TrEMBL record:
Name this polypeptide is given: Outer membrane protein assembly factor BamD
Ranges annotated as biased composition (Pro residues): 421-430
Region feature (Disordered): 390-436
Keyword Aminoacyl-tRNA synthetase listed: no
Pfam families: TPR_6
Alphabetically ordered keywords of this record: Signal, TPR repeat
Chain positions of TPR repeats: 121-154
Superkingdom of source: Bacteria
Signal peptide: 1-25
Length: 436
């Protein structure tokens, strides 16, 4: 009984080994390597031989053990039949001859008719490329997005990213990226009134008023041209994060929101570039512009000061990382102004607790102001207020910086007179022992 039990296990193990070996080393190469090579119709039969047959007990055992991928794996797509190969070659010839309208119909039919086959990836790319050449940019974007979705590791990814970036640039009016020299000094009294960079477009902006639908221009979407442009940029850095256009797509998205006064969203994209692309040539601009939009989202001393503090830290980091930056003098000046704004916020807190008649809170607020900003314009008034507070309100606070230390010895507490000390009597000697 025990011998037959171990024999069954040995047979199953042998079946698994033979099944996995047969699927991985047939025909001179793996299917994964073939799918990454240039498309070649002559190798269809070879792909057919590599693709495992989904039948028989051996294959079922190997599939249950995880040795074979399922039918939905993009690397196990069915080989395209010779009819599909001939149709694709004919469509490519029509494309090269310049009949783009007919070629678009052919590629669209092939991609739909032979879905989940090895020819679908090529047909989808050629469909988007044909639509791009015809300047049907919305349709081209949809085709490229479908290619991204169906084949995340497509071998056309670099060319698709270039096309998507060109489409987004056209829809946004071909704006140049914002540089630190394009921004204006921040108005710290009302940061939101600081002038924003204007669009310096290399060409004519193709989109009209955003509230009117586009019914005639096929190069643009029907509505929301800018939104579709941002969607194209998003597809680039999501599907090709290590490509040459990823960081530039993020910068273009951040600049768009910057110009449209969406400072929170712009700051999110600048931070994304700082965190994910530390070797990007746009890193310095991401620090300088990111600290600028954080300041623009600050609303004044009566509101939350998180953005003010974060902007100051970013500027200090930018000065340390890029000591030769052209924007360094302005960064240093804005750092000083940010400190003055923080002192103003602390002074507003002092006045608030004064109106509440809360002596302890006033003591804590003035102590914090004099500790953190001893040279601010509010320091003399804060020191006078702190000195006038009762000692009970300041009993748990440390001495202020610059407070002279007490040199005279402290007065000893008077102790009331006690009775004269009388030493106790010696104990009596024990009997039977001579006293010394």
């Amino acid at each position: 009984m025990r011998t037959s039990f171990f024999s069954a296990y040995a047979l199953i193990g042998l079946a698994l080994v033979l099944g996995s070996a047969g699927c991985q080393s047939t025909g001179g190469g793996s299917l994964l390597s073939l799918r990454n090579e240039k498309y070649d119709p002559e190798r269809v039969e070879e792909v057919d031989r590599i693709r495992p047959v989904k039948s028989g007990m051996l294959n079922k055992i190997a599939l249950a053990g995880g040795f074979l991928p399922d039918d939905k794996s993009p690397y196990m797509a069915a080989a395209a039949p010779p009819k599909a190969q001939a149709a694709f070659k004919e469509a490519v010839t029509i494309f090269e001859d310049g009949d783009l309208a007919t070629a678009e119909k052919r590629f669209k039919h092939i991609a739909s008719r032979y879905r989940d086959t090895t020819i679908e990836e090529d047909a989808l790319f050629m469909l988007g490329e044909t639509q791009f050449r015809r300047k049907r940019y919305p349709k081209a974007q949809d085709s490229f997005d479908e290619l991204y979705e169906r084949y995340p590791t497509t071998r056309y990814i670099d060319r698709v990213s270039d096309r998507m970036y060109a489409i987004a640039q056209y829809w946004l009016g071909s704006p140049k990226l914002i540089e630190p020299s394009d921004i204006q000094p921040v108005n710290f009294e009302k940061p939101a009134t600081t002038p924003r960079p204007k669009v310096a477009a290399a060409g004519t902006h193709p989109s009209g008023p955003g509230y009117l639908p586009n019914l005639f221009d096929r190069t643009r979407p029907v509505i929301d041209t800018s939104g579709r442009a941002l969607q194209a940029l998003r597809s680039i850095w999501l599907n090709d994060p290590t490509g040459p256009k990823a960081d530039e797509a993020i910068m273009l998205s951040a600049d768009y929101h910057f110009r449209n006064a969406n400072y929170v969203e712009s700051d999110r994209f600048y931070q994304m570039l700082r965190d994910e692309y530390p070797k990007s040539p746009y890193l310095e601009d991401a620090f300088v512009l990111g600290s600028h939009v954080k300041l623009l989202s600050y609303q004044g001393p009566q509101y939350d000061g998180t953005s003010l503090e974060e902007a100051q830290k970013l500027k200090q980091t930018a000065v340390r990382l890029f000591p030769e930056a052209q924007a360094k003098p302005r960064l240093l000046d804005e750092i000083r102004k940010s400190e003055a704004q923080q002192a103003s916020r602390q002074w507003e807190q002092v006045r608030f607790y004064q109106r509440k008649n809360n002596a302890t809170a006033v003591a804590v607020s003035t102590h914090a102001l004099l500790t953190d900003f001893p040279n601010s314009q509010y320091a003399p008034a804060a020191r006078r207020i702190y000195t006038s507070l009762p000692a009970s309100a300041k009993k748990n606070l440390k001495p202020l910086p610059g407070t002279p230390k007490r040199t005279s010895p402290p007065q000893l507490r008077e102790v009331p007179d006690a009775e004269p000390y009388t030493p106790p009597a010696p104990p009596p000697a024990r009997p039977g022992r001579a006293s010394l």
